[in-house]
Amino acid sequence: MTEGPNKIAFVDKAECTSCHLCTDELPEVFRMDDDDLAEVHNPAGAGEDEIQDSIDSCPGECIHWKE
């Protein structure tokens, strides 16, 4: 089982391009909402490194860490 992150990710839906990249890479963390925008449904579904990879590869740059 993957240890969850100490930081919590969130999606700024105003920046989401609905590309589905995060949901394809980490469906255990991200899903698409009813408006076809990404959201975090399980912030502990993957480790910080895996989530950071999704943040780094997001073309809309809409995934961030909560401060």
How would you portray this structure in words?
The strands form two sheets. The protein has a two-stranded antiparallel sheet. A two-stranded antiparallel sheet has the order 2-3. The model has no long low-confidence stretch (mean pLDDT 93). It contains two helices and four strands; from the N terminus they run E-H-E-E-H-E. The protein has one domain: Alpha-Beta Plaits, CATH 3.30.70.20. By secondary structure, the protein is of the alpha+beta class. The chain has helices at 21-25, 48-57; strands at 9-11, 30-32, 38-40, 63-65. It is globular. 22% of the residues lie in helices and 18% in strands.
Tell me the layout of helices and strands.
Blueprint: E1 9-11, H1 21-25, E2 30-32, E3 38-40, H2 48-57, E4 63-65
Antiparallel strand pairs: 1-4, 2-3
* Model regions low in confidence, pLDDT < 50 over at least 5 residues: none
From the coordinates shown, what is the CATH architecture?
A: 2-Layer Sandwich
Indicate how many domains the architecture comprises. Answer: 1
Main beta sheet strand tally, sense and closure: 2 strands, antiparallel
Rg (CA only): 11 Å
Task: Quote the distance from N terminus to C terminus.
Answer: 26 Å
Strand order of the largest sheet: 1-4
Oligomer: single chain
Shape: globular
CATH class: Alpha Beta
SSE series: EHEEHE
- Strand residue percentage: 15-25%
CATH topology: Alpha-Beta Plaits
Percent helix range = 10-25%
- Number of β-strand runs: 4
Structural class: alpha+beta
Count of DSSP-assigned helices = 2
**Averaged pLDDT:** 93
